[in-house]
Amino acid sequence: MTENAKTTPAARAELLRSLHAPGTPLIVSNVWDAITARIVAEAPGVRALATASHAISFANGVSDGEGLTVDQALNAASIICNAVEIPVSVDFEKGYAADAAGVQANVERLIAAGASGLNIEDSSSPAKAPLFELAHAAARVAAARAAGEATGVPIAINARVDVLAGGGEWEDMVARANAYLAAGADCIFVLGLGDEDMVRDAIEQVNGPISVIGGPGYIPLKALAELGVARVSFGPRTLGLTLSHLHAAATQLTALGEYPDELGFTY
Asked: Count of domains in the chain?
């Protein structure tokens, strides 16, 4: 990737941060390797990418929830980030470290791998509960911000709040979201905002941009934009979409059916 005034790591990070605009949401179709990154990056209107840890883990034959080692996660991030010229936000799970100092060191390595942003979550297990103690969780967000300051790359931090998804209380979600923003997060990724009223209340009570995960049966994208959401991602659901098409095609071919039109796709 050529480094110039438009494509420096700092410029890409600043661009990614600026794309989190309430009411004009950044739509990121999650990717998991070089070819999915390139294909999505070439789609009209796409200005940034995001990875999904679940998809990357499954593509590597391990479970989600830091089933990858930190070196494996960084290698996967590097392959994706260096396959495209637009900003990439990396799902960095819990930072692959037990403490804030370890998070900072690993995020500095993530920035060196080419990431312009990251997701960092506050639950200590894939079950979304229990959560890290609030002060510790906020310190981990602050560590990610410190990594950006240390490297001169203002990495965009999408801090995930798992309170509602883990069965917790609304007030705790709001308190955590605002604490993470105060610690340096740029956007708050709230799992469990199940309807328009919840999204509206979160936007009113959280002191920064809100990110959600979209999919079938959820609030339509246009409605999310009208509510003021700043970012919508799809997590491993884009992997599911891809695998569903592949499974259907394999079934059709095995049954001596017609060649699917997509079989003629060239890249």
From this structure: 1
pLDDT of residue 17: 97
CATH of the domain at 217: 3.20.20.60
Cα–Cα distance for residue pair 263/120, rounded to 1 Å? 37
Q: Is residue 202 part of a domain?
A: yes
CB-CB contact of 66 with 96 (8 Å): yes
75 belongs to a structural domain:
yes
For residue 208, give its domain range.
9-235
- Whether the CB-CB separation of 185 and 141 falls below 8 Å is answered with yes
Phi-psi region of 217 (alpha: psi -120 to 50; beta: other; left: phi over 0): left
CB 237 within 8 A of CB 32: no
Neighbours of 202 (CB within 10 A): 24
Q: Is residue 185 part of a domain?
A: yes
Q: What are phi and psi of 181, to 5 degrees?
A: -65, -45
Whether residue 1 lies inside any domain: the answer is no
Rounded to the nearest 10 degrees, the angle between the axes of helix 34-41 and helix 70-81 is: 40
Which secondary-structure segment (H or E) carries 89? strand 88-91
Predicted TM-score (pTM) of this structure? 0.94
Tell me which residue has tokens 């479970």.
Answer: 63
Give per-residue pLDDT as tens, 236-266: 999 999 999 999 999 999 999 999 999 998 8
Largest CA distance in the chain: 60
Q: What mean pLDDT value characterizes the chain? A: 95
Transcribe 100-131 into DSSP letters: HHHHHHHHHHHHHTT-SEEEEE-BSSTTS-SB
CB 72 within 8 A of CB 39: no
